[in-house]
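Before the break, one more example. Copy the sequence into your notebook; we will annotate it together after we see the structure.
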Amino acid sequence: MKSGTIVQKLWVNITNSTEGSILDTFVCIAPVYPEMKGLKFDPQTASDNGYVFTLENMEDNCNGTTTITVRVCNNNDKGLSNVAISLPAGVVPSQPTNGSTYIGDEKSYFVENPTNNPYYSIKFETLDEDGVKNGQCDIFRYIIPTDDAEAMTEITIRAKTAHIIGEVTLDVDYTGTCNDSDGDGVTDDWDDYPDDPDRAFNRYTPAEGQYGTFMWEDFWPNKGDYDMNDLVMDYNVIEVTNADSEIVDVINNFYLRAAGAGFLNNGFAIQYPSYWEVTDIAADGLNMAEIEADNRTVIFFQNHRQVFEVSGDDWINTYPTYPFIPTVTWSVKLSMTETSKAKVVLPPWYLAPFNPFLLANGVRSHEIHLPDYPYTYEMNTALLDTGDDATDPGSGIYFRTANYLPWAILIAESCDYAIEMTQISDAFNYFVEWVQSDGTQKQDWYLDLPGYQNEDLIYQVPTK
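Here is what the structure looks like once it is written out:
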């Protein structure tokens, strides 16, 4: 899955090993996870009897062990039964363990570690009803001592499908290289912070160098003019983690573009996951951010006009005949502590960009959230299910109209927005279809494609 793309997911409550129920569906953004940089190993490939065997990588783990990665592709029309990979004499891989279940990219396997059948090796027996076939491939990884890996001169890989057997022997020339300047157990080639033992990886949302867009209608719980341009702001989030993948910092990059607000002083805040604690505002380009008492919520600004450095009550960058106000970019770096481990299945507001919300007219308790996202401890709950709001906690519905329309939206890339006093559904022809399908239909509704936009109703930044 490409990083930074929008995907539809389910939030599922697991009852037991075979049963569960769907609690909610939501649209989220595929985050960018750390990727290997500077791969030094030269893969070796050979084919036999319909199989393609690749010694794909030997990676020094900087702890006295090396991870060996083998790829096997089966071009036969019968499912793969097993794969055996030769081991140095007397060496027993530390992972995966004997009798365990190994999860490959495609299938699951029972591990024999070691075995003498067909020779001294680690063997992966397919557990699924049918193994990879017809050009499918799977990855097999195991860990042995680096000294033993360096002593290897060849490796034999054997695959079996029904009565079809393929086997190759590949040359090995490997020297473990552990360049770990900060001693955190992450090699410099992988480490985004090679000289900082407290930091190792950057995780980007939507993607490195790419911004997404927040849009708000600020008249909640009433629908207002529903132009969804009362605050238009782009975002990029960098989660900084240590070698154990524990959160250390969150760097929020913002780009405030427009405010066709009905109120003069809307604010903006984000609530972070319950298993994190915001310990400090390490850097703030505007010097406006403040941490609330729950140590999870940060108010980044309380008055959008102060951010734009304007006075008066004119709409900002939403009315074509009004002067264009320069957009504002800034970053806020938050120091974080991970107080507990996250659950395996996370609701969308625990994933970047987390739980952003508008503070309408500077009133802290007047929060406007993304649809079906939770409000904070300061929320004036008496506003729920009033006006046009059809919040129904029993059904998990929050901040939506009776027609399922939201007051806030999140897009995984920077996008256009409607001009002032124009309903967003008039400017973007497929907006309603996207919303009412929970994001499963017309995921590209905001793009400038034939039939998608009404150009006269889209705000255009004036050219000089």
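The domain at 44-171 is CATH 2.60.40.700 (Immunoglobulin-like). Helices lie at 146-151, 304-308, 424-427, 431-436. Try to locate both features in your own notes.
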